[in-house]
Specification:
With 251 residues, this protein is mainly alpha-helical. It contains 11 helices and 6 strands. The strands form 3 sheets. A two-stranded antiparallel ribbon has the order 1-2. A two-stranded antiparallel ribbon has the order 3-4. The protein has a two-stranded antiparallel ribbon with strand order 5-6. Helix 4 runs parallel beside helix 7, helix 7 packs parallel to helix 10 and helix 9 packs antiparallel against helix 10.
Length: 251
């Protein structure tokens, strides 16, 4: 789905591109968004509204067209993130999965969490030679995707099953536990909290299986490292996640 940017060009809402047509990542750092404090209950913790686009980080191009495209991409992701938060979240998640297609949606989300190999024209040498470089995902895009995934995992038990059944997504998020941005690290801990939440006894069996899968991916070791994090919020969320990961061990 496309919409015109400031230059009148059509832009994909979820996949910003540079002038060469290559997919690129967004650019905004959002240090104002704070995670909701809650130790004992599951919440849609990533529901704060989009606060606009700030200056691009160092690895982002600086041309105005790209910034416009990133802003549109960011708005698209934040729209989806807020769409699946609130009292009707479960119904909206079902609608989202049906309209986008489960495989397509998660493929897009995974692509926003991982570096991309980009073929770029070598302008410095003024030749037709193409060089391959690695475009790192932008922190603000990662943060927004974590918001979105957490809202989905905070839905119904069946939605937690959908998220836990995405191996590539889980691998991509496990790699973010050591991210330099504290909001991303908090988001990782909240994802564990949401995925290990059990609404009632009918979900206990699936919950145990979700915990087992997370442990196989090395999540417990990652959480132990976050217990020693410099940021208090990260440490507290990690402790809550570990408590839920070990709940059935104590019962």
């Amino acid at each position: 789905m496309g919409t015109p940017n400031a230059a009148g060009e059509q832009v994909d809402l979820l996949n910003a591109t540079d002038g060469s047509g290559e997919c690129r990542q967004g650019a905004r750092t959002d240090d104002d968004d704070e995670m909701t404090e809650a130790d004992s209950q599951q919440q849609n913790v990533y529901s704060s509204p989009w606060r606009g686009v700030r200056e691009p980080v160092e690895s982002a191009p600086t041309n105005d067209g790209y910034i416009d495209e990133v802003a549109i991409q960011k708005q698209g992701l934040d729209f989806i993130r807020n769409l699946i938060c609130g009292p009707d979240a479960a119904e909206m998640i079902d609608y989202l999965l049906e309209q986008f297609g489960q495989d397509k949606l998660f493929a897009v989300l995974v692509s926003k969490l991982r570096p991309r190999l980009v073929n770029a024209f070598n302008r410095e040498r003024r030749s037709s030679e193409h060089v391959v470089r690695q475009a790192q995902p932008q922190t603000d895009v990662i943060e927004t995707v974590m918001y979105l995934i957490n809202n989905m995992a905070a839905g119904s038990p069946r939605h937690r099953q959908v998220v836990i059944s995405q191996p590539e997504l889980l691998k991509a998020t496990v790699a973010l536990f050591s991210h330099s941005n504290r909001h991303v690290r908090v988001g990782c801990a909240w994802l564990v909290i949401n995925l290990t939440w059990s609404d009632d006894h009918s979900d206990h069996g699936n919950c145990k299986q979700r915990i087992y899968q997370l442990k196989k991916l090395g999540v417990m070791e990652k959480l132990r490292q976050l217990e020693e994090d410099d940021e208090l919020d990260v440490r507290e969320r990690a402790k809550s996640a570990i408590c839920q990961m070990t709940y059935f061990d104590r019962s």
